[in-house]
Each structure stands twice: as C-alpha cells, then as structure tokens.
Design goal:
The protein is built from twelve helices and 17 strands. Helix 8 packs across helix 11. The N and C termini lie far apart (103 Å).
C-alpha cells in the first residue's frame, strides 16, 4: 500500500472547512495552520508561527493563555478537550469559537491539533433564546391565566409560575394531577373534557369549583403531539370566582326585579280587582239577607235554600278571583318546566280583561290552533304578557278615539313560538328598536323599567323581543321563544 507524503496530509487538511492549528506539544507555539484557519484569522502560515495568544485573542480573563495551555496539556492524558475560545483576526474581528485540543504523536515530535469553528451566530441565537425565555417567564408570571401540560393520566408535567400561583402551589410543591385541585364531584366532568380535547384548537371553556369550595376555575384544553417532550394535553385556566359571584348576584337581582315587577303590576290592578270582587260580595249579601227574611217570615224553606245556594255560587266566584290573584302574586322559587304558551296567554288574558274593562278597551284573544310547548318559568312569561298588555292599555287610555282595541295572541312562526300584543293607540314616533333597552317608554310618565324587565325575562329564556309600528296607528310588541317540541309537558 502506497504511503502518503507529508504534503498529501497538508492538502487533506487544507481541504477541510474546519479551522486547524498545530501547536508544538512542549512549547505550545504554532507550527502550522490549514487554509481555513489562515483565511478566518487573516494571517498566512508564516505570519501565524511567531504569534502568541495575546496577539490573536480577546484580552479577557477567561481567554488567558494559561487556560488554553492547561486544556492542551490535559489532552495528552485525558483525551480530546473541548473549550470555548475567542480568536481575534488581523482585522480586529473577534470570532467566538468552539475549540477541540487533541494530542497527536507524530514521527518527529508530538503536536497538539486544535480544531475550531465559529459559533458566534449560534451563541447569538442562544442569547436571544435565553432573553426570550426570560421575558416569556416574566410575562407568564404576571398573567392572570395559568398554563399546564398534562400527560394521559391528567398529571401535571409542566406548570407556569402564574399557574402555581392560581393553584396555591409553592415553588417546590409537586403539582400532582389537575383533578386534585378541583372539588371531588367535579373530577368526572373534568376528565371527560380532557379525554375529548381537540387537536385543532382549544375546547369550549368549562367551569369547575376548586378543592377548597370557595373558588372557581375556567379551563380550556387542547391536545398537542409535536415532539417527545411536548406531547399531552395543554390546558389554560384562570380564576373566575369574581365573575361567578357577580353573575349569581345579577341573577338574584333579576329575580328580585321580576318579583317587584309582578307586585307592581298587581298594585296597578288593585282597583279593578276590587271592583270585580264587589259584585259577588254584594250579591252574597243580598241573597243572604233575602234568605234571612224568608226564614223569619216562615216562608217556604225551599225559597231560603235557593237564596243560600245562590250566595254560595257567588262566594265560589269570589274565591276563584282571589285564588287567581294569590297564585299569580305568590313568590315562588324558579321553576322551569315545559308549558303550553297558549294556556299562559289564556291565564294572563283574564287579568288583562279586568284591567281593560274600566279603561274602556276591548280585548280580543287570538290563540293558536294547537298547543305551543315552550320550556319556561310560567309565571315570568305571564308577567311579560301582562306588562306588554298593561302598557298598551295605558297608551290607549291616554289617546283619543271611541274604539280602543287590544289584540293579544300566540302562534307558531318560523320554527319558534310567537306572542304578540297589538293596539290601535297613538304608538310612538321613533325609537322602536330601543324601546326595551331601559329608560325608554311609550308613556309620557313611564320610565321603561317594565319593558326592560320584559327583555331581561325573554332573553333569559333564549328568546327575542321587538316592537313594530302598526299601519294606521298603534304599536305591536312581539316576542319569540324556542319551541320545546318533542319534550313531554309537565
């Protein structure tokens, strides 16, 4: 086999893109350099040979010549040594390098071969990454939202500093499984959400009561499978305790407003109901007095009995009126059930007719051909009908015209249940679209609270309410509710 000459080895080393310097193993002086090293440093081989470390190195303690000599010496006993070194070119340009010192035993003498490559760009990227990481850590620490990565057993593999704060974890506390931080009864629902985590975006948010029972967490999740160290379910969570409490307070305020509106409506009807009751009460008195007279005059017993039975019928009629009022006014806890909207309309129509009679308004009821089943709080939907009808009666009372008409009805419309209240009164000139927004009213002395209450109730039932001008004069208020077809009535 033909052996290679020393010049061949030089050609081989010159062909490398990696920079190579040969140092004498004893003196550590440069004895040769390949072409890549010469081009990087800006010196020829002859110019490099007399140079020392101070001539071609950044003047910093960590690049002291003694440190490089120590690495070269270790390479003779411990094998190749890797260290960071900064070479300075003839033009004064610093080149941060990764250097590898290897002792090589040549035929004439031992040398230390130092291979080095420019890692300035890599270090720059590393510095930027470290800066971004530090900045991201600071941002995430101040976030109101926590981030965690879970494995398939729902155990937390990584959690942000803000997440630790939200869960009340100290710096060295093991986070454990995410379900350990929610109430026990919430665990099945949370595990179900995690098991169905989508891959194309975050899941719908769900709320969970915390393990202490005092706080609430809002959690979204997404499954990620990109790398070995980034695989699992990524969750985002935040403390929504204040929001939950605010919503609960608003619901309670809405219920109180609804009850207040109901009592206010009945207060407006008090005189009409009193008049309605005065007739059977007066009839009872007359029949009873007649029966007493007949008994005192020794009249036939049958005539007295007839009078008492007539009085009994009038008493029963009065009791029916009182019962209707008591059932409507009585405060009840929210009771959502499937009910026939036509039946609700019919119940409310009795009160409307009582109120309309004294105002000289004729009432016509147009009911649907069949039942309109809706899921609702029966009393509250009745309250909406009454508020709209009473508002129309007040408008008709204040306007001119001998024929004051009010029409209320219900029907099926475009897949929903529709209720309308239409009058032929003066209507309103403008602002139909804002009539239910609050502090807007078709009455001169009204404040619109009743109409705003109507909107609140209808929207809470998933419906919509609007007002329309009537051709020829008047106003029509309509509200739509989702049908509950296919659900058995209760």
């Amino acid at each position: 086999m033909t052996s290679l000459a020393e010049s061949d080895f030089h050609r081989l080393l010159d062909a490398l893109t990696l920079c190579v310097l040969l140092h004498d193993a004893q003196s550590k002086a440069i004895v040769w350099a390949n072409r890549a090293a010469c081009e990087a440093l800006g010196f020829s081989v002859d110019e490099l040979i007399p140079l020392k470390a101070v001539d071609m190195t950044r003047p910093e303690p960590k690049y002291d010549r003694a440190l490089a000599i120590a690495a070269m010496n270790r390479s003779a006993t411990e094998g190749p040594q890797v260290y960071e070194w900064c070479y300075r070119s003839r033009a004064g340009i610093d080149m941060l390098s990764e250097a590898i010192a290897t002792t090589v035993h040549l035929q004439e003498r031992d040398v230390v071969m130092v291979q080095f490559r420019d890692i300035s760009a890599e270090e720059g990227i590393k510095r930027k990454l470290r800066a971004h990481e530090a900045r991201l850590r600071e941002f995430m620490q101040d976030l109101s939202e926590g981030v965690a990565l879970l494995n398939d057993a729902a155990e937390i593999q990584y959690i942000s500093e803000s997440g630790r704060r939200l869960l009340g974890l100290a710096a060295h506390d093991a986070p454990g499984a995410i379900v350990n931080h929610t109430a026990s009864e919430e665990a099945p629902r949370l595990l179900q959400q995690l098991a169905h985590a989508p891959t194309d975006g975050p899941s719908s948010p769900s709320r969970y009561r915390s393990v202490d029972g005092e706080h609430w967490l809002r959690i979204t999740c997404r499954r990620i499978e990109r790398e070995e160290d980034l695989c699992g379910v990524l969750i985002h969570f935040r403390d929504v305790t204040d929001l939950v409490r605010t919503e609960a307070a608003r619901r309670e305020e809405a219920r109180m407003l609804e009850y207040a509106g109901r009592y206010n409506a009945m207060g407006e009807m008090a005189m009409a109901i009193a008049h309605e009751l005065s007739q059977p009460v007066a009839a009872i008195r007359n029949f009873v007095e007649g029966a007493i007279q007949r008994l005192s005059q020794a009249a036939p017993l049958e005539s007295a009995i007839w009078g008492l039975r007539a009085a009994d019928r009038q008493a029963e009629h009065a009791a029916t009126i009182i019962k209707s009022v008591r059932e409507y006014v009585a405060r009840r806890d929210p009771n959502i059930a499937v009910a026939d909207l036509c039946a609700i309309l019919s119940e409310a129509a009795w009160f409307v007719q009582v109120r309309a009679r004294d105002a000289g308004v004729s009432v016509h009821v147009e009911s649907s051909d069949g039942p309109l089943w809706v899921e609702c709080e029966r009393v509250l939907i009745g309250q909406v009908v009454l508020n709209l009808a009473f508002n129309a009666i007040d408008a008709l009372s204040s306007g001119p015209g001998p024929q004051k008409q009010l029409v209320i009805g219900a029907s099926r419309h475009e897949g929903r249940a529709l209720v309308f209240v239409r009058d032929n009164g003066p209507g309103i000139a403008q602002g139909h679209e804002r009539l239910f927004d609050g502090f807007s009213s078709s009455k001169e002395t009204g404040n619109g609270i009743g109409l705003s209450l109507c909107k609140s109730i209808v929207e809470r039932h998933g419906g919509e309410i609007r007002a329309f001008p009537v051709e020829g004069g008047g106003l029509e208020c309509r509200f739509w509710l989702p049908l509950a077809d296919g659900i058995s009535a209760s």
